[in-house]
Amino acid sequence: MKFLIVAIYLVVSTLSFAGSNYSQDRLAEFKNLNDKVESLEKALRLQSLVNTAVDNQNYDLACKAQSELQDLVEKAQIRDIITQIKDYKSAYCTMKKYSSL
Question: What is the DSSP annotation of 50-79?
């Protein structure tokens, strides 16, 4: 009888421990996705700022905003657009250098 009670106790404690690990994993995943969404929201605002700066031929601002945009995209680990963002950053920073001459 004592063996049965001990076995039931072990099973219940193991199941509750496994459930708490699952909850912690889900919470960590949610926090990670939430951080990624926040990074993408900032990236979208920065892209709008870059577009406005380029339209106004303010390449200094465009270069700074594009640099920050690159950092955010790298932080969010969006690998498919990072090359394009680096190319635009290079172009805007080059235009900044030549427009100040």
Answer: HHHHHHTT-HHHHHHHHHHHHHHHHHHT-T
Domain chopping of the chain, boundaries: 20-99
- pLDDT band at 21; cut points 50, 70, 90: confident
Going from the C-alpha of 50 to that of each of 20, 22, 26, 39, 65, the distances in angstroms are: 45, 42, 36, 16, 6
CA-closest candidate to residue 69, choices 47, 48, 84: 47
pTM greater than 0.90 (yes/no): no
**Cβ atoms of 50 and 84 closer than 8 Å:** no
Note the Cα 8 to chain centre separation in Å: 44
Fold classification of 20-99 (topology level): Methane Monooxygenase Hydroxylase; Chain G, domain 1 (1.20.58)
